[in-house]
Amino acid sequence: MPENKVVTLTDAIAEPSAGGGLGRFPAMGHQEDEIDLMALIRTIWRGKWLIILFAALAVFMGGYYVYRIAVPVYTTTATVALDPQQQNVTDLTSVISGLSGDQATINTEVEVIRSRGLMEKLVAKLDLTKDPEFNSRLRAKNPYAPKPFIKRLLGLQKPEITPSNRAILDATIDQVLRAISVSNKRQSYVFNITATTTSPTKSALMANTLADLYILDQLDVKFQATQQATKWLSERVGELKTKLETAVTKVKNFNSQAELVSPEGFAALQRQVKETRDRIKNADDELTQEQARLDALATALAANDIEKIVALADDRNLSRLLTMLKSGDVDRETFDVAVQTLVRRAKLDHARAASQTSALKTSITKLESQIKRQSSDLVQLQQLQQEAAASQTIYDYFLKRLKETTVQQGIQKADSRILSRAVVPSVASAPRKSLVLALSMMLGLFAGAGLVLFREMMQSGFRTAEELELSTGYTVMGQIPKMPVTRRVDTLSYLVDKPTSSAAESVRNLRTSVLLSDMDHPPQVIMFTSSMPGEAKTTGSLALAHNLAGLGKKVLLVEGDIRRRTFSKYFDIKGKYGILSVISGKAKLEEAIHRDSALGFDVLIGEKSSTNAADVFSSEKFHAFLSDMRAAYDYVVIDTPPVLVVPDARVIAQSVDAVLYSVKWDSTPKNQVLQGLRMFETVNRKVTGLVLAQIDPKGLKRYGYGGKYGGYYGYYAKGYYDN
Hints:
This protein is elongated. Among the domains are: 47-69 and 435-456, no CATH class; 76-210, no CATH class; 459-722, P-loop containing nucleotide triphosphate hydrolases (Rossmann fold, 3-Layer(aba) Sandwich), CATH 3.40.50.300. The protein has helices at residues 9-14, 25-32, 37-46, 48-69, 103-113, 116-126, 146-154, 165-179, 200-257, 263-303, 306-313, 316-327, 332-408, 433-458, 465-472, 489-497, 502-515, 537-549, 579-584, 589-592, 613-618, 620-632, 648-653, 670-682, 697-703, 714-722; strands at residues 74-82, 180-184, 190-197, 416-420, 476-481, 525-530, 555-559, 594-596, 601-604, 635-639, 658-664, 689-695. A hairpin with a 5-residue loop joins β2 (180-184) and β3 (190-197). It is built from 26 helices and 12 strands.
């Protein structure tokens, strides 16, 4: 037996070049993170019939819905334009102004059209509360509808309460709101009023009626505004008229009760006072001069200073008399008489000046008192006159507005106009049959593709040798198709009768791969095992033994699975000894083996034992038995139990030359295969190669691997059909 190098999982990972094995898993994990687009396309192509089936089913359901279930609805649109530049007949911008036309106003008008107030008018005008489409209470109820039926069955149905008329109206308005939409065309003052109902005539009628109601609502709002403005202005004009009359009466009464001058006369009186003050100042100056003169004359007289007296008198006659007195022409008495006359005249002038000054002061006192009194009256009069003038101005303004507002009633123009009325649609807007069918088909295609991808994602088996090698890191030495037999006993007949079948050719390929796996030490003892039962390891053992015998070699097939002993289903062997009898020496090999001339190899069946099978295969007697078999036969093929079920296969593997691991096509879970291979590594035994068994050529074709007969398996598949 060739020396087996201890290879652990850690070693395999660290040295991926030392023979492959499970150490390739990390690299494979990295590759699995990448999306293979072609593999995805192939997967979808493999499931094309399922996808087509789903698409056809979806189209059928969509067609049934649009042609049998769906109620056709009809949509039509009325167009209304907003006129933000309307002009009133009279200037009433303070009473009623047009719409500004900004975006906020446009959005507001959209909401006005969709307001419950207008909808209520629409419901009332068209009497939609009697229409079953909008009043659900008028619709015929299905007593077997799922929800009411379940409630009634469970006793959860509440007693029906008759709603009020208002509640019915509100519910109808809600339904109408769902049937009508209003939109504004961008960068314009145009509104689209769209109605969708089950009747084309009803849709057009509702859209046109709502447009008319919207126009009438604008006129009604303006009429009510002018009416309210007229009423308010009338009341205000009456109040202002009363106030004006009161102000005018106050002015008249004040004029009749007070001695008033005009503002011009009052100004003249003020000028007179100023002139009088100037005269008083001049009189005071003159009085002062006269007093000074009298005082000087009195002083000169007391001093008998004739020259000074004459100078103060400034009188020609007195100067002439003084000259005559000096010349002696006039006596002194005459001169004194003249002086006395002059003094008396000066005193008279002084008295006159004092009297004039006193009179002027008395006059200005009277004038100032008169000015003070008339100034207060004039201010009060001006206030009354101003109040009367202001009342007159306000009264005139409001009276003018009242007349304008009164004229405006009845000639108001709406801020919007109808551009185009809704027409009766000839084709239903929904359901759009072609669109529904197209979407149904697309949905079916996506659902089918999703199911195919989900099924592919949930697939845990291996379908190709490449996939098996990439996942495990071991070489696939054989790919054996499923034999067209219904019973296990027919397997032997098929191998004999169909020597050129796909199964026979695949076993020959396996035989060649095994014998060439070690050129220096060709394997002589070969064991077959698998992860779990039912993976064609026994069939593979039989086929390999038969194929080796076809080389003219002496071959022994040993049933190593002494727990189940399945050879009895393939061979009609009764009353014979088995492997345990030969190992224990109870029987000779010649007594225990069964030779089938048709198959060309010897068979050694298993026996029931009270000793644990693992202990039997671990014994020296078993090793001695194999040594004898090596000497007696050219090849020994051992069918062993599944490695994940019992430890027998790992024990037997320590004594054989080659270990073949059978994996059932598209069935054995990947984790079970990997776990089984790891279990061999735990006992320092490396699997020689893998066998992908029970391949279904039709399944390969269905999955899209290869061409007409399944790509890599084309030759086998062709043999399968030809034989």
